[in-house]
């Protein structure tokens, strides 16, 4: 049986999902392969807010307000605090933890220069450091990556299409890089310029259009370049919508949480023929036997709908967080190669430089969708 590793979580905002995943770890142990480590929540590192104190009390774990207070039996730390590039203390926390001989899993985004330095520090202290982009480890992300990777191994894709926001560009690129197995060569254009009346549009323009190559594959990116400075983690018009494919079909991650859909364009063989065998009305059997006509126009991998956020938090998030912890401990994972995060970071920074500073705008809570999509879907259930 693998060792049980003691883990602390730094931060309790998004960090509460890490706390929940580790708090329910024992119910996941029976389903985990024997060679994988097991993880136990051993404490919270936070500033001591009422929220942090209440969570520590509820979960019956110690609350530490300084890394120096951590006992010697802590093996790993999840740093779920904003990194330096987005104005937080996450990177300095990671440094302090590594210097104390503790493995570190840090939530994204992290500047590639910081990653290089933290990886070097980890090596110096005989520890491991890894960035968690979270979404590739969700069940839908894993299915999407697996299918796209297996397809790309057989035949290089012809295109990549990404729609996302500034907040989620980092993780979107990691999903794409994992699907391709690489990020280079990379190049991107300047955003499509808004001209004339479009440039005078009063509301924030929903997406800026960028094209280029990533992993040598042509990509088109629709990027939301505005955010609410008072609530920067929310108000994405689209979180992750990514398609990879070619003439034979494409696989689509319709949403961060699924579904994953394979579909293909119509191709009618011998369409230009003009004889009695070229019409499906005249040669129905021959038409039906063609693989172009037999295969479904779309196939869903997994459930036909994404989970609710409550369902995702209870089921998908723990799986994703444990998968990221496993990846941290997997020494031969491709993402532990020095060039991986450098190539990923170059792509991320290249796009960020191309679009320039984010446009700040104040946002209200979203209105309920109309018609109600759940009720509307029931009208079409067979």
From TrEMBL:
It comes from the Bacteria. Transmembrane segments: none annotated. It holds the Pfam family GFO_IDH_MocA. GO terms for molecular function: nucleotide binding. Residues 360-382 are annotated as: Disordered. InterPro entries: Gfo/Idh/MocA-like_OxRdtase_N, Gfo/Idh/MocA_Oxidoreductases, Irp3-like_C, NAD(P)-bd_dom_sf, Thiazolinyl_imide_reductase. Residues 5-132 form the Gfo/Idh/MocA-like oxidoreductase N-terminal domain. It comes from Undibacterium pigrum. This is Thiazolinyl imide reductase.
């Amino acid at each position: 049986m693998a060792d049980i590793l003691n883990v602390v979580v730094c931060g309790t905002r998004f960090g509460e999902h890490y706390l929940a995943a580790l708090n329910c770890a024992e119910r996941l142990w029976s389903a985990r392969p024997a060679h994988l480590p097991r993880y136990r929540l051993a404490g919270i590192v936070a500033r001591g807010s009422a929220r942090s104190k209440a969570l520590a009390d509820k979960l019956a774990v110690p609350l530490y307000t300084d890394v120096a207070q951590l006992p010697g039996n802590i093996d790993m730390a999840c740093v779920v605090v904003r990194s330096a590039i987005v104005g937080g203390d996450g990177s300095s926390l990671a440094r302090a933890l590594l210097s104390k001989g503790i493995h570190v899993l840090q939530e994204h985004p992290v500047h590639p220069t910081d990653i290089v330095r933290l990886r070097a520090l980890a090596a110096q202290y005989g520890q491991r450091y890894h960035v968690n982009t979270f979404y590739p480890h969700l069940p839908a992300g894993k299915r999407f990556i697996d299918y796209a990777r297996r397809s790309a191994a057989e035949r290089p894709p012809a295109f990549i299409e990404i729609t996302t926001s500034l907040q989620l560009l980092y993780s979107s690129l990691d999903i794409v890089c994992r699907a391709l197995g690489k990020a280079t060569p990379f190049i991107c254009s300047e955003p499509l310029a808004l001209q004339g009346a479009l440039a005078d549009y009063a509301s924030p323009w929903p997406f800026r259009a960028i094209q280029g190559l990533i992993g040598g594959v042509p990509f088109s990116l629709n990027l939301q370049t505005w955010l609410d400075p008072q609530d920067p983690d929310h108000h994405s018009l689209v979180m992750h919508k990514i398609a990879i494919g070619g003439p034979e079909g494409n696989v689509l991650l319709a949403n961060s949480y699924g579904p994953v859909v394979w579909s293909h364009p119509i191709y009618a063989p011998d369409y230009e023929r003009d004889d009695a065998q070229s019409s499906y009305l005249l040669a129905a059997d021959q038409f039906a036997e063609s693989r172009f006509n037999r295969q479904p126009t779309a196939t869903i991998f997994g459930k036909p709908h994404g989970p609710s956020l409550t369902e995702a938090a209870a089921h998908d998030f723990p799986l994703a967080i444990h998968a990221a912890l496993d990846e941290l401990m997997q020494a031969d994972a491709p993402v532990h190669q020095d060039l991986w995060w450098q190539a990923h970071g170059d792509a991320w920074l290249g796009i960020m430089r191309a679009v320039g500073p984010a446009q700040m705008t104040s946002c209200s809570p979203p209105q309920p969708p109309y018609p109600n999509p759940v009720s509307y879907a029931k009208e079409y259930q067979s």
